[in-house]
From TrEMBL:
The UniProt record lists the keyword Transmembrane helix: yes
Transmembrane spans: 16-34, 46-70, 82-99, 111-130, 136-161
Keywords, sorted A to Z: Membrane, Transmembrane, Transmembrane helix
The protein, known as: Uncharacterized protein
Lineage of source species: Bacteria, Pseudomonadati, Bacteroidota, Saprospiria, Saprospirales
Length: 167
């Protein structure tokens, strides 16, 4: 199955997608009611970690997909597929805000990994967009391994300085 076939399936059968992305914030809300200010303790912080991963991975993918569609393919905003490009982001925002009311996100195991993933994806997209718009590779006749080295070096620099900034 290709990614386009998966997207076509999701658009043609939206009920499962809708239940998933409405269910995760609902479960987070119910978990907040039952945890009663104990979200930082052992069973609840793992429940929140699973919920965060369940909603953030598709949400991050949707943000990345939107950036790709609008910057590289120059797709019109009127062609946006709601079940693929909008609902995962809204569900991610809603779930994170509900979970944040119940527990400090720094106490949720693995949340720092998602922050690092977002920084790396954002850096890569920015570097790829700069390379695409400036045509450095086409103008300078740089060897391709050097371009890859510049990208990897840029990602490592941004990651290093972002850790210094956060710490």
């Amino acid at each position: 199955m290709t990614l386009q076939q998966f997207f076509d399936y999701v658009v043609s059968n939206p009920s499962a997608t809708l239940w998933y992305f409405l269910g995760v914030p609902l479960i987070a809300f119910v978990a907040g009611i039952f945890s009663k200010n104990e979200g930082h303790l052992s069973p609840w912080n793992y429940v929140y970690a699973v919920l965060i991963y369940m909603v953030c991975l598709p949400g991050i993918f949707a943000v990345t997909l939107n950036i790709y569609f609008f910057f590289w393919e120059r797709r019109s905003i009127l062609d946006t597929e709601l079940f693929i490009q909008v609902i995962p982001i809204l569900s991610m925002i809603a779930s994170l805000s509900i979970i944040k009311q119940n527990v400090d996100l720094d106490l949720v195991p693995g949340f720092d990994k998602l922050s690092g993933l977002m920084i790396i994806i954002g850096t890569l997209l920015t570097l790829m967009w700069i390379l695409d718009r400036t045509h450095i590779y086409a103008i300078t006749f740089m060897p391709f391994p050097m371009v890859i080295g510049i990208i990897v070096g840029g990602v490592l620099l941004v990651r290093y300085f972002s850790k210094k900034l956060i710490a």
